[in-house]
Fold:
Amino acid sequence: MNKKLALIIALVMVVSVCAVLFVACDETYDLTYVSWNLGTEAGNNTERKMIKAFEEEYNVKVKIMEAGAGNNYDPALDAYAARNNMPDVFMTSNIDYVLRNNFAADITEFVNGDASGDWDKIPSAIEQSTHYKSGIYAVPFSMHMMGYFVNVDLLEELNLSNELNALVENFTFEGFKNLVSAVKGQNNGSGAKCIGLSAEDTIIEWYPAALNENYGWFTWDGEQYHLDGSEFATAMQEAASLRLNKLTYDSLNDEDRADDFEGVDGAVQLWDQGRLAIRWGSTYEAPNMLTMNPQMNLMFLGVPGGRTPIVPDYLAISSSCKNKQLAYDFAKWMSFSPKGIMKRIELDNTRMPNTLPLITDDSVIEAYFDKYTSVSGILEKYDSLDKGIVQSVKVVPGYRLARWDYKTGIQITKDGETIENCNIGQLLDACRTGEATLADYANQINAFANQQYAAAVAKYKNYN
Structure:
């Protein structure tokens, strides 16, 4: 044997041994997992502590696979899929993504085989969002509520406590408008000008459901949109009225802001300065609100009519996962297991975590709200979640196109500039700002939105 051949054989043997060692190393893990909320290993946040606790509870090893956050997350999953290396369990930005790409396994057999009954304690609006046709393709991972937060201290300074108390007792849209209007032009205790509401744009998304119990977010009824109906027209009219009367920070022009809010960089900064009475937001923002304003008396009102919008996050179990039962147990531990939630409450050391309990289990709810008491109103809205509505971004196929991105072929003038081929979002904004009239376009907008849903569903060829 010549030296060159011997060297080649030696190299092949080394590579083979390394490959075997690599496989053996991988085989020491029972599951692989990826999510955008894991932080760093050095940071060892609550999510990583939950994984460690699961390993100890089940005597298994979970390998954390790395992925980016924000806009980098889905491309990282795409890259894993391209290498036939999808994580066994992964957080997904929306259910449409996993169905369209055929990434998610149907977990119906594991849900039906779960004798604990815990799945049945998930709020119905969220549980239903995991279904497609005859299958279940996601595990609800966390839950947030959207609605209006109130700076109670500011309203007390403005002698509007009675109005706020009346609103808490009977949260009507009329009372909401009146309270927002009452703040206009007033100064706080430091003499700084205040305003009642951050923005009016979300009203067209949640208010139709307050007017019609058959509607969800953005008039969605589970099968189609109703953007040509009277409820959506009323919501647009109310949003346009708030803007026309300059009752929101978002509605102020540059001159208004220079006169009364010079140096303020957006509604959030105005809120932090104690000059904004009511702010639209989500409960996942509450921890930051408490950090930025530790002394603020903060209240969560939800939305007029009481049909609180819900924002879920989801985990999916990969179609390629070899141990789907263990994957289901892990996903449950991280999300809706009473034992897992209790462990999460034990491990968390913040004034308030950025997620709410995912099941209506009395012992879990009691433990959670006994520990986290910094924001009043959240428990009351949590108790009525069964009539809540799920925000459509993560659950309705084709929603982003239907709500914002689809090019309509319609020409409009917005902010003094001509847009030859505006998208739906631009057209709706123009209707809200008075630069277009909804009645002229409602039928077209509704048709476009429903077409985008149908086109998205048509891509789910592998699901019965």
